[in-house]
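Ticket #4471: structure export looks truncated?
Reporter: QA, pipeline team
Priority: medium

Steps to reproduce: submit the single chain below to the structure queue and open the exported record.
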Amino acid sequence: MPGGKALPSGVDKNVAEKLTKLEQERKKLEEELEKKMEKKRAGLRQWERGERESERDGLRSELAEDQVRVLSGEVGSGSGTGGTSY
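Actual output as written to the record:
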């Protein structure tokens, strides 16, 4: 109401100040936690990407070794063509 008084909240001023400080601290801790979690998620994405690249490179290496064996005549039926082609 215009010109009226605010009703007392029933909370002591010191308690209200402590609650305000605790709320600010809670927000600060939540922000710090969010930053840490984002950093962790980014690290996990990088780790998973590295695992995929490593697996891919391993498969490429195996394919290249198989191709060298085929071309060198180590694999095949002896027909002189180097065996099975891919």
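Status: closed, not a bug. The export was complete when the record was re-opened. Leaving a note from the reviewer for reference: The chain has a mean pLDDT of 86.
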